[in-house]
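Q: I'm writing up a methods section and want to include an example of the input and output format. Could you take the sequence below and give the corresponding predicted structure tokens, formatted cleanly so I can copy it straight into the document?
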Amino acid sequence: MTKTAETTAPPPARDRELVMQALLDAAERLLVSEGHAGISTRRVAQEAGVNHGLVHYYYGSMEELLVQVLERFTARLIVRQREMYGAEQPFIEKWRTAWRFHEEDLAAGYPKIWHELQAMAWNKPELRDRLVAVDHEWRAVLRAALARALDAYRLGTSVPPLDALVALVMMMSQGAQAERLLGIEEGHAELLGWIDSWLQSLEERRAQ
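A: Here is the clean output for your methods example:
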């Protein structure tokens, strides 16, 4: 029997968008609650309330769906970070806000998703490039913020170069997230307290 135009026509754009968002939402919840090893095509489709064939129809593979979960989540947070760092307030307040966001993101599951996909990408070069691109987005926002802070505090050569500072903060942040996911918090409060005191001294010097 010849298929009719009605059965072969692509779904309406609105329905397509709703299904794709439902799959992304479902995969995001499962990555946070169960991790990538516990996710299957059928499990995601069941969570989204759609036919399991639509996962591959819209995304081609589970890996593509999971990477897009990370990219979508990152895009939301990058907008937030840019707005926060662009505000007219001392850098120390932005730094404090950034670490409050750190706590919010842990609760929302973003670090869990990042580390789940990072583990996947270690052995998959095609995924590695996508995660490196996500990392570069974070570094770009941080680099711009730290450049303004260095200028405001007139630190010059008394601290490491800008790219070294970006790397230091990135490693500190991601390392802290990984430890927190394991329930390790030893020394975290003390380190943040020391940094806060140092920034406070810079603020006082700048005010003078």
